[in-house]
Design goal:
Layout (H helix, E strand, L loop, with lengths): L1 H9 L3 H27 L12 H19 L14 H9 L12 H6 L4 H12 L7 H5 L6 H7 L11 H7 L10 E2 L5 H4 L7 H14 L16 H7 L3 E2 L8 E2 L5 H5 L6 H14 L16 H7 L3 E2 L2
Parallel strand pairs: 1-2, 3-4
């Protein structure tokens, strides 16, 4: 009984046999279909684009003609595309240069030559950052301009191919030296020599005069120094400062003849006059009282006032 069941399970009817046979044929067709397709249907002939070169070039020329109508230039569209050198040929068809100096060239003229807005913006950013063109090769360094484009515009650039050594140093921007502000009343000769145009000799003159005065109350007092002309003073004026609180003052109630006469603004006679008035009338109440001397007028007192005290 069991054997009959097993036999019935594996037995195949005539209809099933035909179905299995049909499936086998379909499977074989699917398996070998690509080879049959290549062998009997697909033509593997290589496409020769040279046959269509004339057609392609004619199509490109028609596009260039449309471009000439769009921009209104009679010259645009006359150049025929060379498919052997596509990049160079494309640049030549795009650009229409004229003699120009690239330094500060207006945006409109860059565009008129055929450069795009993006290219021109890059060039102008270079100029805004201080960039300048001294030779033709400086233009070649711009990443916005391709080598093919540079080769086309190079003959039209109104700049020398190279600079002589003299021209190079003349055109190369000099690095400006920076100077620190020097406070005159606290500065020694070393600090004074850091000022533009001030060497050891002149630094010593400034220092000695400051010592005799007791300090500067105005930077313009430097003009009182021998050989300090207006041009030398103008060169250092922006780099000097004065702190009047550092001035050493003279007590006119206690100073003797040597102390008074050593000051550049007080000669021997004025020193004697100040002492004599003090001896006759007693101590000065204010510094203005020294104008009671016949030798001291308002102009002289104005010069002396920052250096006087009655304490």
């Amino acid at each position: 009984m069991a054997k009959e069941k097993i036999k019935d399970f594996f037995s195949v009817s005539a209809t099933q046999k035909r179905g299995y046979f049909l499936l086998a044929i379909i499977f074989l067709l699917i398996l070998f279909a690509p080879k049959i397709y290549k062998a009997f249907i697909f033509d593997t002939e290589t496409i020769d684009f040279e046959k269509d070169r004339t057609v392609i070039e004619a199509f490109i020329s028609s596009l260039q003609f449309q471009n000439s109508n769009q921009y209104g230039s009679e010259d645009r569209g006359k150049y025929k595309m060379n498919l052997d050198f596509p990049e160079s040929s494309a640049a030549k068809s795009k650009l229409y240069p004229f003699p120009f100096n690239p330094n500060n060239l207006p945006v409109e003229q860059w565009i008129e030559m055929g450069f795009t807005q993006k290219q021109v913006q890059s060039i102008k950013k270079y100029e805004q950052k201080g960039g300048r063109f001294y030779t033709k090769k400086d233009v070649k360094k711009l990443w916005a301009i391709s080598p093919e484009e540079y080769n086309i515009i190079e003959p039209f650039i109104q700049l020398p191919d190279t600079l002589s050594e003299r021209q190079y140093y003349r055109n190369t921007p000099k690095e400006e030296k920076t100077y620190q502000i020097v406070e005159l009343n606290s500065a020694d000769t070393t600090m004074l020599k850091t000022l533009p145009g001030i060497g050891s000799s002149f630094a010593r003159k400034i220092y000695n005069y400051k010592f005799k005065l007791g300090g500067f109350h105005s930077k313009f007092q430097l003009l009182e120094i021998k050989d300090m002309d207006s041009s030398r003073f103008a060169g250092i004026e922006s780099y000097i400062d004065v702190n009047p609180w550092l001035i050493r003052k003279i007590d006119i109630n206690t100073a003797d003849f040597d102390k008074l006469s050593s000051h550049p603004y007080i000669n021997n006679n004025i020193a004697i006059s100040i002492i004599n008035y003090r001896n006759r009338h007693g101590k000065y109440n204010t510094t203005e009282d020294i104008m009671k001397s016949e030798l001291i007028d308002l102009n002289l007192y104005t010069k002396l006032a920052p250096y006087l005290t009655t304490e």
